[in-house]
Amino acid sequence: MTATRDRIEATLRKRYRRERLFRFFGLVSLGISFLFLLILLFTIFRTGLPAFQQTWIKIDVDLDPAVLGVDRHASQDELFGANYAKAIKVSLRKIFPDAKGRKKKRGLKNLVSNSAPWQLRDAVMKHPDLIGTTHAFWFLAKDEVDVFMKGRIDRNLPESDRRLKDFQLAWIDKLLAEGRLEKRFNTTLFTAGDSREPEQAGVAGAIMGSFFTMLVTLLLSFPIGVAAAAYLEEFAPQNNRWVDFIEVNINNLAAVPSIIFGLLGLAVFINFFGVPRSTPLVGGLVLTLMTLPTIIIASRAAIKSVPPSIKQAAIGLGASPVQTLFHHTLPLAMPGILTGTIIGMAQALGETAPLLMIGMVAFVVDIPHGILDPATVMPVQVYLWSDSPERAFVERTSAAIIILLGFLVVMNSAAILLRRRFERKW
Questions:
Q1: Domain match, 58 and 109 both
Q2: Does residue 44 sit in the same domain as residue 109?
Q3: Quick check: is 61 in a domain?
Q4: Global pTM?
Q5: Are residues 395 and 246 in the same domain?
Q6: pLDDT tens-digit profile of 292-314?
Q7: 213, 333: one domain
Q8: Residue 392 CB neighbour total at 10 angstroms
Q9: One domain, residues 272 and 390
């Protein structure tokens, strides 16, 4: 008896030791995963948060009619074509009279964004009485000045590495001393479309493109997915080889690489049906194909979770199978259906590969106003900016990732809240 008990206790100690070791490795794995997640988020936020501020330069612009080529009594068309770039150039030379020679003149021009003449034009067209006066205007600073102001360029580096010349650094110091440089909240990031100039680039076009693409995806995938799930779960014949074939393929489609859906959309929607490329319509159609398996599987699970007694009671009271489905089964299964739909939409929002195949990688400046306008989406915008050589696009890439993560967090939080709000316990 003693020997048997000793063997049992030794076996138990070995098993408990293995369980503790397994628990330890599990905790270590979770800790490492959490650590890498924190490092990733810290890197993204540290790089991207400066993009939410933008540097502006104050210039006292002399709106001399001789320089502009118009007077205050000119028509709107004449004001539109006035020489505003020359007025800004002349005013900058008054601030920096030592800017002589081609190299310094080019460096002086690179202090202010190329959008400055447009800003001045809009102000003068709105207030023509400014012509003939000297007025202080705030203009967007060039991207290299903005990056330097945010501490991303070390002034002790060689000129070739920092892209700012020594005389430009002296000019920036002078502007700072005179209070002509300040950082403001970057509204351009949320109101402008894409641009070759980092200081003028924004995500408004990508946000609207994502909105229209997700709208098309939702309007198509939700009713089709729920209808397919309801039929397969409630009306499809059991032990039918065609039904089994469909179910197996739906489950397999959920694991197909997303780029395959892009190839399918390119071959079917664009080449065969002639749907315009780079539009939210074709993007929504492709993402619908990718999202449908997720919605169907989640909807079937939600419908199956409704107790059979509720369906039997409805049929016993004289309800038809269709009435039972729409009046009892679907309302009770809706929390799970909505949760699966939102999760599928969140997955579609972050997809890039299928949209690259259908041309939504195009450089689009204008903000789309419909599903047939050329557009891009947030993940593709991140991809485009990450491939740009300018240093200012590095922080804008991370800022776009932060915005995209915000949308994904909101969508997943909505799924959790909907489930908790409408979930019923049987």
A1: yes
A2: no
A3: yes
A4: 0.87
A5: yes
A6: 999 999 999 999 988 888 888 88
A7: yes
A8: 24
A9: yes
